[in-house]
Amino acid sequence: MYEEFYKLKGNPFQLTPSASLFFGSKVHNQGFAYLQYGLKQAEGFIVITGEIGTGKTTLVERLFSVLEFGPVVASRIVTTQIDGNEMPFLVAASFGISTEGLSKTQVLHAIETFLKQKANEGKRVLLVIDEAQNLSLPGIEELRMLSNINHNSKPIMQCFMLGQVELRHLLAHDSMEQFRQRIIASCHLEPLTEKETEDYIMYRLIKCGWRSNPKFTSEAFELIYMETHGVPRRVNRLCDRLLLLGALHQLDVFDKEVVQTVVDELKNEMKAITGIESFSSLGQQVRPANSSIKYDMNSVDEHMEKAGTVPSKSHEIHVTEELKKKSEELVEAKAKIDSLEERVTGLERKIEYLHGMLVGRLGGGMESEFDTFQLKTFKPK
């Protein structure tokens, strides 16, 4: 609807990650450089972490867009909490290797045959693990073992791991020492700064054909940042609704009052669904209450920088039973919020789809994220 009113070539604030709308903030450019460095090294693990909605998937989509003509066979796994013995089957299925009726040993042999076949073809294999914070310790160990497969003394498969902050805690576990030694680079994606948030909004508008309509006041940008904390996904949701309101009321200037109207609408909607009044609280991180992972973020950072160093006892967090209980309650609440956010996102996509059918433009607009790189995404049931 608002694309026609504001004469835009597509949806600048779509929720689906798109390489064509990649915005290179300081931290995202650093993350992208690490991914490129990892590909050049052709071995080991790259670890990218970040809060929900900070752009981890968009970063990888950007990388895939430049791999189209490269000798790299890539596949992605969207993980759930799986047993370590299931990891080889998951990896095989992601590359289209049949595992029906095979034992684990036979599956491992099939993967090795596949990898060496690609090596003989002059290709390398890249495996991307999304939502890697859900992996078990045995599952990560299986990935490390798979990375040992080589051809002519050269590694064949690389692995990029994307996950929320819990992944860093997971990799700080004592049993992960050998795995940490295989990490060649890591990056944590922070939210955008206030200036970057403004630049992010304008960049996406300009990419979609914006011609000075609508205009944003400085107070409007300030409020958008305050309500979203610079998290790209939240910025997208707020600005998408802002443009919709603007089109409905034929506005050509967005000031603080207009933004506040949209924020209030979103808060009321979220309160009706979750009982939570704050729009910006959706997607905020809650730390895990796993007593077997007791390291603070300083010790985790040291592990990422100095592979194989076990945290000292002075860095352990001594959690009381009462705090454990509170933390567990927060984790449960976060899981419910994440589930509701996914449902809201699904409904928004359905609305966008139906709108496209009504105006006869389904299939037009921005180029699909999969048009530039045909990536297989495997998600276990």
Secondary structure: elements and pairs:
Blueprint: H1 2-5, H2 26-41, E1 45-50, H3 56-65, E2 72-78, H4 87-94, H5 104-120, E3 124-130, H6 137-146, E4 150-151, E5 154-155, E6 157-163, H7 166-171, H8 177-180, E7 183-189, H9 194-207, E8 215-216, H10 218-228, H11 232-248, E9 253-254, H12 256-274, H13 297-305, H14 321-359, E10 376-378
How would you describe this structure to a colleague?
Mean pLDDT is 77; it is low at 281-301, 303-320 and 359-378. With 381 residues, the chain is of the alpha/beta class. The two termini are 35 Å apart. It has a six-stranded parallel beta sheet, sandwiched between helices. Strands 4-5 form a two-stranded antiparallel ribbon. A two-stranded parallel ribbon has the order 8-9. Helix 10 packs parallel to helix 12 (256-274) and helix 11 (232-248) crosses helix 12. A hairpin with a 2-residue loop joins strand 4 and strand 5. It has helices spanning 2-5, 26-41, 56-65, 87-94, 104-120, 137-146, 166-171, 177-180, 194-207, 218-228, 232-248, 256-274, 297-305, 321-359, and strands spanning 45-50, 72-78, 124-130, 150-151, 154-155, 157-163, 183-189, 215-216, 253-254, 376-378. It has two domains: 2-18 and 192-283 and 336-359, no CATH class; 26-191, P-loop containing nucleotide triphosphate hydrolases (Rossmann fold, 3-Layer(aba) Sandwich). It is elongated. It has 14 helices and ten strands. The protein is 48% helix and 12% strand.
